[in-house]
Specification:
Helix content is about 35%, strand content about 25%. The chain has about 170 residues and is of the alpha+beta class. The protein has one domain. Strands 1, 2, 3, 4, 5, 6 and 7 form a seven-stranded antiparallel beta sheet that branches.
């Protein structure tokens, strides 16, 4: 499979790492933002939950991820789950190392968060057709495999803003 080959307005190409973040946000509108943490070679997913949320997500998500990785025959290097309350929104942050992450795991994380917080999860409605969603999933798998061997050289964050995906790097 070829790479995404996204271009900036000035004609330059978007690096594959930024393309990964964009694909994750396009495929999974439940993810509020995603951050590539270069020092830990990890992805940090952020979900927004309306009202107060309980702190039990780690108690269910971590064992599910451990079982998933046992079945895959892989070991997680980084797995951090944090919930913090900000005014009327709870922010759930899940940090996972890129080396042991697969596109199936990304889908599993999103599905478990959706089930746990069903009506309280803040997200944009997806208008992408089913074939585009499947294409984005394939891209996520391809880019995760590429990035696990070729680390991104800097931290990158992609966020949603009014139906658009905006990417920043530093």
């Amino acid at each position: 499979m070829g790479s995404l080959n996204l271009q900036y307005k000035d004609g330059g190409y978007v690096p594959e790492g930024a393309g990964l973040l964009i694909s994750i946000l396009l495929r999974y509108p439940e993810v509020g933002s995603i951050y590539y943490w270069q020092e830990k070679h990890a992805l940090q997913f952020t979900f927004l939950i309306k009202d107060e949320a309980d702190n039990s997500m780690e108690q269910s998500l971590r064992p599910a991820l451990e079982v998933f990785h046992d079945l895959e025959g892989m070991e997680m290097e980084v797995c951090a789950i944090e919930m913090r309350q900000e005014e009327q929104v709870a922010i759930l942050t899940i940090t996972r190392d890129v080396n042991s992450m697969t596109r199936s795991e990304v889908g599993l994380i999103v599905e478990l968060v959706k089930r746990k917080f069903s009506n309280h999860l803040v997200y944009d409605e997806s208008n992408l057709p089913e074939d585009e969603l499947m294409f984005q999933e394939e891209l996520i798998g391809h880019m995760l495999a590429t990035i696990s061997t070729d680390a991104i050289e800097k931290n990158v964050v992609a966020v949603r803003e009014e139906g658009r995906v905006i990417v920043f790097n530093n």
